[in-house]
TrEMBL record:
Needed cofactors: Mg(2+)
InterPro entries: Diguanylate_Cyclase, GGDEF_dom, Ig-like_fold, Nucleotide_cyclase, Reg_prop, Rev_trsase/Diguanyl_cyclase, WD40/YVTN_repeat-like_dom_sf, Y_Y_Y
Organism: Xanthomonas sacchari
Full protein name: diguanylate cyclase
Keywords: Membrane, Transmembrane, Transmembrane helix
Organism superkingdom: Bacteria
GO biological process, one term: cell adhesion involved in single-species biofilm formation
E.C. number: 2.7.7.65
One GO term describing the cellular component: plasma membrane
Membrane-traversing stretches: 772-790
Short name of any one Pfam family annotated for the protein: Reg_prop
Entry GO MF terms: diguanylate cyclase activity
Domain GGDEF: 870-1001
Length: 1001
């Protein structure tokens, strides 16, 4: 090892240790300061608009592909890619995936410890490293800039000059890499010495240099640096420099932020507090990375400061991208801050549980939120818990809400029936078993104007008025037992959604059922919505259904719906239907539905609001009512598995939706990466061509969809969905052009202004073996070879045929004799196999099938009963006191008892029933086609027959014995073999406990 290398490694190790100690101290300071800020700031009223105005923060870490969680620097290149400098290399981000460049995947590149990034005007990216100078990336190639001295710089800042030179700030001063690669010590010439350079910025035809000793100004290369700015700026330790939106300057320092306006006016913000970076976004908001480890957003009018919830210690990495999104780095990853069209109300805001089931706003403006841990009331900017449990302990899960006539609220619970609450949340009435109301799983409520209450749940439909309760079930025509939606239309008809279809109940009491598959094109109906013209919309598990003029119309995935299962339908009053689903909330324009019906389009353009828009979760909850509400302010309230989602139906961020920039990210030919360029000429046969692309929409990268077409090969566009690579194998030679298009949802490929595009020219030059002279020569040679081969083969064939005729005659006689012997052997083997199969599947003692035969028979019988909806009962029979019989009379008598019980089973159960020895003295009985009471009678007769049996031992003593039987029948709760056997076994032991010699089931 050279001596210089040893010094370099020692210096690097010491430097790395200092940085890590610094990070640790920053973390400790951040925790202290954060706690002080949290105590000092009063809680603001929690309104719907306040929730919606929260920024949407996304985070990426090493788990998502970052080379390291400690992010030092950020930049965006000309194409729109985000570059991230970390402690372990640099990564390029397209919104969905990171492409990492480090010493492991980029030979010769020492890219660990990246502290500065600078986008070049020609589309390249400059990467400043902690120990190895500056690297430049352009068109898929890397270059190490400068001479040997330049390649050892510890880079902290960079600035490109108009003449092609590069200003480089380092830990050891200011340098300049000239266009020819020569390194110049610019700091020495400017009189700055060996001080650390923290920031560089071109401002008003001069270079501003930020150092720990203050702010300096260089008018030209080679001139002396002059202290510049207000008195405090000249001596403050400068951290970062950035231009504002109006020609001014932001200087982040240990003394706060100096904001110098274009008119030379000065504002001193966060005075006396260290600020590591400052940025003004296009909306005028000021962003600051504080030494406390927090990211602060100051409103454009300066009225308020907001501390954003970013984990870790925020680093000086802070930029605004082309879409107006703010990116920040911290010790715990990369963060993106964006405006959202949605927000989330969670336990952090005071909810009792994040698993929200139902929501409804009352006449007084209070929003009632039912969740897995009870009920909350949101009013006046505060969330108040509503106590529901009748005893101390956990409140029940709330599954249904309905406004009462007097301003109160009816509440349906998971296991405590129905409650009537006053407007203030106090309990006025409980409806339970005594009132004829099941305590469990109340999923839907509907309060009539006359005081009647409709209750739907897992036990069917109930109507309660006064002290009377009327139940509706399958006998009344209800298609399914589980009722999960209730809706009163304009004509007064009650619509009932169940798990097996829908039903309507007219004012005269006539109930009309539309079961699944017979009048209703879905299985589950979760919600109803009526239009003014009487059209009825249904949210179902088969898509959005429309009933108009007695005809059903289905809108599902085949016409562009992202998800078929929909839970709730809301009308925003602006021509849109909103549907809650397990993949976000869908906005469907009524105009697009009309165009689809008229044949003017083949698919719907559906907008999806999900986590990228600020929703707490994409999983909406349903099978409860109401699973969504439109508030008095027009805000949509959506229950999800991670909180209550709030959506501004105007979707303001969508108003300026533009075509996502589309870039070609990589080209691979037979697995070998190619330099990026607009045209490729490829020689020889190409077995596999892969072209990667990326539509850059960082606000909602998961909503970008692609299609591509290879002109000269594809006849039409290939729908790629979210896939970011086009692959072709064994393309024929010729000229091609690959066209790629990208669009963010809602998809409407007819709107060219929203389509991003990119193209690639390809020329596949045929190899020599595909050119016509070579082909003709090969054809002639092949023809000659074929003729020669054919003549030789014909001669050999005739000679061989003569020999074969003789051999065939001899072998035919031998084969006939062997065939006869084989047939006899096969008959013996088949007989043996049948005997072995019978012995393997039957009990030798009783002659009954054993468990090996019994289990498959039970599975088949259960499957047949479930598919044909016929009854089936399963019983377990156990001989009482069998061990005592063995002990008292000997095992031979015990064996005879088992044989006699087997004979009784065969004689009593008949051909349609099945009996098998299940093990020991226990027998399995399968009774197809019998309900509970017929099965009980059959089994009781068997029990009596066994009790009448008498044996005599060798001493002439009479041996009598009895049997206990437990049986269970198929029901909604017992639908598997295991459940039936477990239930039958429990009932068998119940029979034992109750005195034996009985049937329990």
């Amino acid at each position: 090892m050279e001596q210089g290398d040893r010094r370099h490694d020692i210096r690097d190790g010491a430097y790395a240790l200092c940085r890590r100690l610094g990070v640790g101290l920053c973390l400790l300071l951040a925790l202290c300061c954060a706690s002080v800020v949290a105590r000092a700031e009063p809680a603001a009223p929690l309104t719907e608009r306040a929730v919606l105005e929260r920024p949407v923060i996304a985070r990426w870490t090493m788990q998502e592909g970052l080379p390291h969680n400690l992010v030092h620097a950020l930049a965006q290149d000309r194409d729109g890619m985000i570059w991230v400098g970390t402690w372990e290399g640099v990564a390029r981000f397209d919104g969905r995936a990171f492409t990492v460049f480090d010493r492991q995947n980029t030979p010769g590149m020492e890219l660990s410890g990246v502290f500065a990034l600078l986008a070049d005007a020609d589309g390249g990216m400059l990467v400043g490293t902690a120990y190895d100078g500056v690297f430049r990336y352009a068109a898929g190639r890397w270059e190490h800039l400068g001479d040997a001295r330049a390649q050892r710089l510890r880079v902290t800042a960079m600035l490109r000059d108009a003449d092609g030179g590069l200003w480089v700030g380092s830990e050891d001063g200011l340098f300049r890499i000239e266009a020819d690669g020569h390194l110049v010590d610019a700091g020495a010439a400017a009189g700055l010495g060996r001080t650390r350079i923290a920031a560089l910025l071109r401002y008003r035809d001069a270079v501003l240099v930020g150092t720990p000793q203050g702010l300096f100004r260089l008018t030209a290369h080679g001139t002396r640096a002059q202290r510049w700015g207000a008195a405090a700026m000249r001596t403050a330790s400068i951290r970062r420099l950035a231009p504002d939106c109006h020609g001014g300057l932001l200087a982040a320092s240990d003394e706060g932020v100096f904001w110098l306006g274009a008119d030379d006016s000065l504002q001193w913000l966060r005075r006396g507090q260290r600020v590591d970076a400052a940025l003004q976004d296009r909306d005028g908001h000021l962003w600051m990375s504080l030494s406390s480890g927090q990211l602060l957003r100051r409103a454009g009018n300066g009225a308020s400061d907001e501390v954003l919830s970013i984990s870790g210690v925020v680093s000086p990495a802070l930029i605004e991208d082309h879409e107006g999104l703010v990116w920040a780095g911290s010790t715990e990853g990369l963060f993106r801050v964006a405006k959202g069209d949605a927000g989330g109300l969670t336990r952090q805001d005071g909810l009792g549980s994040d698993y929200v089931r139902v929501v409804q706003q009352n006449a007084d403006g209070a929003i009632w939120i039912g969740h897995a841990a009870g009920l909350d009331r949101w009013q006046g900017g505060r969330i108040h818990a509503v106590r529901l449990s009748e005893r101390a302990g956990r409140d029940p899960s709330v599954l249904a809400l309905a406004a009462a006539r007097d301003g109160g609220m009816w509440v349906g619970t998971y296991d405590q029936g129905v409650l009537l609450l006053s407007a203030d949340g106090s309990i006025r009435q409980r409806l339970g078993v005594a009132a004829g109301v099941p305590r469990s799983m109340v999923r839907a409520l509907l309060a009539d104007a006359d005081g009647g209450l409709w209750i739907g749940g897992n036990e069917g439909l109930l109507y309660r008025k006064g002290d009377r309760t009327r139940a509706y079930g399958s006998a009344d025509g209800l298609p399914g037992r589980q009722v999960q939606a209730l809706y009163r239309d304009r004509a007064g008809v009650l619509w009932i959604g169940t798990s097996q279809g829908i039903a309507t109940l007219a004012a005269d009491g006539t109930l009309r059922a539309r079961p699944s598959g017979h009048g209703f094109p879905a299985q589950n109906a979760f919600d109803f919505l009526e239009d003014a013209d009487g059209t009825m919309w249904v949210a179902s598990d088969r898509g959005l259904l429309r009933l108009r003029g007695g005809q059903w119309r289905i809108y599902d995935h085949s016409v562009g719906l992202p998800r078929d299962k929909l839970f709730r339908l809301l009308d925003d009053g602006n021509g849109n239907l909103w549907a809650n689903s397990n993949r976000g909330v869908l906005r469907i324009a009524r105009a697009r539905l009309a165009e689809l019906d008229a044949g003017q389009r083949s698919t719907l353009a559906v907008d999806v609001v999900d986590r990228s828009d600020g929703m707490p979760s994409v999983q909406g909850n349903g099978s409860t009512a109401p699973a969504g509400w439109r508030s008095r302010d027009g805000i949509l309230l959506i229950p999800t598995s991670a909180g209550l989602g709030l959506i501004d139906p105007a979707l303001p961020s969508r108003r300026d939706v533009r075509a996502p920039p589309l870039v070609i990210s990589h080209v691979q030919v037979d697995g070998v990466a190619q330099p990026l360029r607009g045209e490729y000429r490829l020689h020889g046969g190409v077995a596999r061509l892969a072209v990667g692309y990326a539509g850059l929409s960082f606000r909602s990268p998961d909503k970008v969809r692609y299609r591509y077409r290879l002109q000269g090969f594809d006849r039409q566009w290939v729908d790629a969905g979210s896939n970011e690579e086009a692959v072709y194998t064994n393309l024929p030679s010729g000229s091609y052009r690959l066209d790629v298009q990208a669009m963010t949802s809602p998809l409407d490929w007819s709107r060219s202004e929203r389509i991003g595009s990119a193209s690639l020219q390809l020329q596949l030059v045929p190899p020599f073996w595909e050119r016509w002279p070579f082909v003709v020569l090969v054809a002639l040679c092949a023809t000659g070879l074929i003729l020669w081969w054919y003549r030789g083969r014909s001669h050999r064939y005739r000679r061989r045929q003569r020999r074969l005729n003789t051999i065939i005659a001899e072998r035919t006689h031998e084969l006939k004799a062997k065939n006869l012997a084989l047939k006899l052997a096969n008959l013996e083997r088949e007989d043996l196999v049948r005997k072995l199969a019978y012995q393997a599947g039957h009990d030798a003692l009783t002659g009954l099938p054993n468990r090996r035969t019994g289990d498959p028979y039970l599975n088949a019988a259960l499957e047949r009963a479930l598919s044909t909806r016929t009854p089936l009962c399963v019983a377990l029979l156990d001989i009482d006191h069998f061990k005592k019989i063995n002990d008292a009379h000997g095992h031979e008598i015990g064996d005879e008892v088992l044989r006699r019980v087997g004979e009784a089973l065969r004689a009593s159960l008949g051909e349609q029933a099945f009996a098998a020895r299940h093990g020991g003295e226990e027998f399995l009985l399968v009774l197809p086609g019998l309900d509970q009471e017929p099965a009980r009678a059959r089994l009781d007769a068997l029990r009596v027959r066994i009790a009448d049996l008498v044996l005599y031992d060798d001493d002439g003593r009479a041996v009598r014995f009895t049997a206990s039987i437990g049986f269970a029948c198929v029901s909604p709760a017992l639908r598997t073999r295991r459940d039936l056997l477990v239930k039958a076994d429990k009932l068998l032991y119940q029979a034992k406990r109750e005195g034996r010699d009985r049937v329990v089931g």
